[in-house]
Amino acid sequence: MRERLRERVGERMGQCMGKRGDEQIGERVERARERTRRHCGSMLGWMAALALVAAPTPSGVQASERFAGKGEIELAFSPRDDTEKVVIGLIRSARKTLEVHAYAFTSRNIADAMVAAQRRGVRVEVLADAQMNRREKGNAIPRLLAAGVPVAFETRYNAAHNKVLIVDAEGPRCAVLTGSYNFTWSADNRNAENILIVRDHCELARAYRANWLRHRKDATQVTSLPWRER
């Protein structure tokens, strides 16, 4: 019975991993991909639960990095809060550096805040998911490129699903933003999303920046859209 169940799960997972709908523009692409990810994620959870039934729980499992709690924490939830305003406020607080992970990026307001940061002397650099951002229409990436903001696309992963801002990692007023929130109109107005900002914890900010740098080594610099992987 268990073997038959595992076979059925395996078949279902094969459908999930191989499933690629027709790509559309802007917000419709974002919603379609998010639905697929949630469905496949549910199946992955089912398989993980089956594996745990058959295998003992390992002892001493830890996260890759741990830090003592410090600094200030800020939360926002969309659509209840004006989450885009919070994101833009954090970008405006940057004085030296701003590293960005983006999945879907259609918000002109957020893109313009990044351009303004660069113009006042902040070193702004953006990593974005290649498949979600390779088209020009409905995308805010061209606004960054036109202003000379360095952008690179991630192609190593099935989805570069990080949504992160790293502000002034070397301090003194460092901050990290993370959460489910994409830089899109839908994330701000239609979706149930969250962001978490940790301020004045520069050890944490440096850890996030180190991860950003690892991703940047594998990414491909972009100068114009539409983009095709070579």
Shape: globular
Beta-strand content: 15-25%
What is the helix tally? 8
Name of the CATH architecture of the largest domain: 2-Layer Sandwich
Q: What radius of gyration results from the CA coordinates?
A: 19 Å
| Number of distinct beta strands | 8
Q: Which residue ranges are poorly predicted, with pLDDT under 50 across at least 5 consecutive positions?
A: 1-7, 9-24, 39-57
**Lateral strand order in the biggest sheet:** 1-7-6-5-2-3-4-8
Helix and strand topology:
Layout: H1 2-18, H2 26-54, E1 72-78, H3 83-93, E2 97-102, H4 108-119, E3 123-129, H5 130-133, H6 141-146, E4 151-154, E5 164-167, E6 175-179, H7 185-189, E7 193-199, H8 202-218, E8 220-222
Parallel strand pairs: 2-3, 3-4
Antiparallel strand pairs: 1-7, 2-5, 4-8, 5-6, 6-7
Helix pairs in contact: 1-2, 3-4
Keywords:
44% helix; 230 residues; alpha+beta; 19% strand
Short description:
With 230 residues, this protein is of the alpha+beta class. It has helices at residues 2-18, 26-54, 83-93, 108-119, 130-133, 141-146, 185-189, 202-218, and strands at 72-78, 97-102, 123-129, 151-154, 164-167, 175-179, 193-199, 220-222. Helix 3 (83-93) packs parallel to helix 4.
What does this entry look like structurally?
The chain is α+β, with helices and mostly antiparallel strands and 230 residues long. The chain folds into 2 domains: 2-54; 72-222, Endonuclease Chain A (Endonuclease, Chain A, 2-Layer Sandwich), CATH 3.30.870. The chain is 44% helix and 19% strand. It has helices spanning 2-18, 26-54, 83-93, 108-119, 130-133, 141-146, 185-189, 202-218, and strands at residues 72-78, 97-102, 123-129, 151-154, 164-167, 175-179, 193-199, 220-222. It has an 8-stranded mixed beta sheet, with helices on both faces. Helix 1 (2-18) packs antiparallel against helix 2 and helix 3 packs parallel to helix 4. The longest helix has 29 residues, at 26-54. The radius of gyration is 19 Å and the shape is globular.
